[in-house]
């Protein structure tokens, strides 16, 4: 998201410079009449930037509401979806994902718990990482079915469905169809479920250690290492 | 559309042939007079620009209607101003002939080329008749505005008339994507685009020639690119709103498609009430999200089939406030938030959450209350069949004044006189094929055939007001009867 808005800012500056050059040339050519006359369309086109910013902000706010839906419903702890999304984006950047992939990653992370809404009673503490695998799979599948109907890119639904999958199968082979983003969100979600109640640096380290012990099958080792870099680099919750 | 794709009526073919003949008749005899190499190089550059604009606009606005009227117009207008009529008519030629078109391809391409060519030819003639080319040589600016403006007007008029002709001939009552329409609909951008075209021409005449002319087009290209980006964001926003609705409907599976139908009905009513476009868009979101607060109500209560206890009822009536809280962060909603908060208020002041009465209730809330009740009555749910539209409307009219705003009920009645209400068609896209998730996902719950959540809690509302004790209540009457 950040990258996109920086791109727009660059385009806007280029637009302004070209506009000034054009009006300057026109004034030289046609006298001062050109100034008000030809500035008008250029100013109008600057408005399109403002409109874009407004609609982008609105979308961001709606996404935030969506991310809060599970916590309002009492299924997850306050701020869980947002934290997982931030953490997953951090890991994704650390692993060098592209802008498009990062956007899908963030979107999927924000909605990863939506399947829980179909449970009649919330999981204690919203900690899906501690549930038995079939139950996790069911929640993931329900979530992805719902996401599929919303009109967000279909990859998001695939990612959400794949989050409960360990990165290695029973026989130790890797599933080539498993989206990378799903492995990342799986790690970020586990970290938040296991470590969010304390928040001190020691606890973060402890949780990372716990995840590292499970990198044989459960958690993708590169993602765990990236997580360690992201969360141990930043000052522990101020 | 389909029909048009299959075959073009003979009248339309004859009309196309006629216009094509007219265009050729105008352009071909005048063509030998365009002798200077400069004029030809200008034609080549402008034609390339036109092609470029066409491709960019096509990529940016893929599959979307109403995207900004691309940078076509200024390029054509610059051609009109800079070139003799026969050459001006050629500017659009490569662009239209190379553009992808639906079959019958050749006819369509010829038509587009003839239409734009003829319009440009006439406009250029007008410009010259008003002595514009001489004014352009000396760049006498205020005086130049008159011929340029008249030429632009002539272009739009000829183009519009030709278009009206083909529409009448080919598909009476049909519609097609055509960019001149947005020119007619939005005079301000059209005026702006016209000025850009003039600026292009003026810069072109200057010492930097074609380079400066092309430069003038860049800001416009940028702004139409931005418009396409905004369109994409808007679509993404819609998707997010739908995701929120879906989140609610997982919990409250009885009301599948209800939210979007309420949004739709509210928009129909807004048409009758004469609301502006901005407010209608806001109302659609408010109607669609009106029950978003049900997220905050325990699923057990939403799916409970028996009557609710006092305690449970207290939790259920909180849903408008949860909803208001949930969408509070969404800046643009404004009026819509009030609609969500107050959609269970009644005209006589016996509603919730604040017990507002009459005109104290925000207009959006009064609209949504009626749309909500209407859809609840007419939609078929797992436990009962939907009632016929006429019966539902009669019921609404009976409750007008006490529960609903009579003006809103009238608006709905009038709106439905014009449009046929199809409750089943207005669910989610592909409702039929979609796996039965929200319904199938329901945990097994001992369910006796009984009214659903909505009915249950309003039933209790009446009982609660009457001061009944907790626990077993009489089976509730449908809530719109209170």
UniProtKB/TrEMBL annotation, chain B:
InterPro entries hit by this protein: Cyclic_di-GMP/3'3'-cGAMP_PDE, HD/PDEase_dom, HD_GYP_dom
Feature: compositional bias, Gly residues: 461-472
Family annotation (SUPFAM superfamilies): HD-domain/PDEase-like
Keywords: Hydrolase, Membrane, Transmembrane, Transmembrane helix
GO MF entries: hydrolase activity
Domain HD-GYP stretches: 233-428
Region (Disordered): 425-482
E.C. designation(s): 3.1.4.-
SMART domains: HDc
Domain of life: Bacteria
Pfam families for this protein: HD_5 (PF13487)
Catalytic EC class: hydrolase
Transmembrane segments: 12-31, 73-98, 110-130, 150-170, 182-204, 210-228
Protein name per Swiss-Prot or TrEMBL: HD-GYP domain-containing protein
The organism of origin for this protein: Streptacidiphilus cavernicola
Source organism phylogeny: Bacteria, Bacillati, Actinomycetota, Actinomycetes, Kitasatosporales
């Amino acid at each position: 998201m950040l990258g996109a808005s920086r791109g727009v800012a660059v385009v806007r500056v280029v637009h302004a410079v070209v506009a000034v050059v054009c009006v300057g040339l026109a004034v030289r050519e046609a006298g001062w009449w050109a100034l008000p006359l030809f500035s008008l369309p250029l100013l109008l086109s600057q408005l399109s930037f403002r409109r874009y910013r407004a609609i982008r902000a609105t979308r961001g706010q709606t996404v935030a509401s969506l991310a809060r839906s599970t916590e309002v419903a009492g299924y997850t702890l306050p701020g869980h979806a947002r934290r997982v999304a931030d953490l997953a984006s951090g890991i994704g950047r650390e692993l060098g994902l592209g802008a498009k992939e990062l956007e899908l990653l963030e979107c999927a992370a924000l909605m990863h718990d939506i399947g829980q809404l179909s449970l009649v009673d919330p999981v204690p503490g919203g900690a899906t990482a501690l549930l038995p695998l079939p139950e996790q799979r069911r929640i993931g599948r329900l979530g992805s079915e719902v996401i599929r109907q919303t009109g967000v890119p279909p990859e998001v639904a695939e990612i959400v469905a794949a989050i409960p999958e360990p990165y290695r199968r029973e026989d130790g082979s890797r599933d080539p169809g498993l989206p990378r983003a799903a492995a990342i969100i799986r790690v970020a979600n586990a970290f938040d479920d296991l470590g969010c109640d304390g928040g001190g640096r020691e606890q973060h380290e402890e949780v990372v250690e716990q995840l590292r012990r499970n990198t044989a099958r459960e958690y993708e080792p590169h993602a765990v290492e990236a997580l360690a870099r992201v969360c141990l680099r930043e000052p522990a919750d101020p | 559309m389909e029909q048009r794709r299959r075959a073009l009526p003979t009248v339309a073919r004859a009309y196309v042939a006629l216009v094509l003949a007219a265009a050729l008749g105008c352009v071909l005899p005048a063509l030998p007079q365009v002798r200077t190499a400069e004029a030809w190089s200008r034609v080549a550059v402008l034609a390339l620009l036109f092609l470029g604009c066409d491709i960019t606009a096509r990529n940016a606005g893929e599959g979307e209607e109403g995207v900004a009227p691309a940078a076509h117009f200024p390029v054509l207008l610059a051609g009109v101003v800079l070139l003799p009529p026969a050459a001006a008519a050629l500017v659009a030629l490569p662009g239209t002939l190379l553009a992808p078109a639906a079959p019958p391809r050749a006819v369509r391409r010829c038509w587009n080329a003839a239409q734009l060519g003829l319009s440009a030819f006439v406009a250029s003639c007008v410009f010259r008749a008003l002595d514009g080319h001489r004014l352009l040589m000396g760049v006498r600016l205020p005086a130049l505005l008159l011929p340029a403006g008249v030429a632009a007007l002539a272009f739009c008029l000829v183009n519009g008339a030709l278009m009206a002709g083909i529409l009448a001939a080919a598909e009476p009552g049909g519609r097609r994507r055509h960019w001149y329409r947005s020119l007619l609909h939005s005079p301000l951008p059209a005026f702006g685009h016209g000025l850009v075209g003039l600026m292009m021409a003026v810069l072109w005449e200057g010492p930097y020639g074609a380079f400066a002319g092309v430069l003038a087009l860049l800001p416009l290209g940028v702004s139409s690119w931005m418009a396409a980006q905004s369109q994409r964001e808007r679509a993404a926003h819609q998707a997010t709103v739908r995701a929120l609705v879906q989140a609610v409907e997982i919990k409250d599976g009885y009301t599948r498609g209800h939210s979007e139908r309420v949004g739709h009905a509210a928009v129909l009513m807004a048409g009758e009430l004469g609301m502006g476009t901005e407010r209608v868009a806001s109302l659609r979101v408010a109607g669609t999200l009106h029950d978003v607060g049900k997220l905050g109500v325990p699923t057990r209560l939403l799916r409970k089939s028996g009557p609710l206890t006092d305690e449970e009822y207290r939790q259920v009536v909180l849903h408008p406030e949860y909803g208001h809280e949930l969408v509070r962060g969404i800046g643009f909603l404004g009026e819509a938030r009030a609609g969500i908060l107050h959609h269970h208020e009644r005209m006589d002041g016996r509603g919730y959450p604040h017990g507002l009465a009459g005109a104290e209730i925000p207009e959006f809330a009064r609209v949504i209350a009626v749309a909500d009740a209407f859809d609840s009555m007419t939609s078929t749910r797992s436990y009962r069949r939907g009632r016929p539209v006429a019966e539902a409307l009669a019921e609404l009219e009976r409750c007008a004044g006490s529960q609903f705003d009579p003006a809103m009920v009238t608006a709905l009645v009038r709106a439905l006189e014009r449009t046929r209400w199809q409750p089943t068609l207005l669910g989610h896209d592909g409702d039929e094929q979609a796996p039965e998730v929200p319904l199938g996902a329901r945990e097994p719950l001992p369910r006796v055939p009984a009214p659903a959540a909505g009915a249950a809690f309003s039933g209790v509302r009446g009982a609660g007001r009457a001061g009944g004790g907790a626990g077993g209540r009489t089976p509730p009457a449908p809530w719109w009867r209170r």
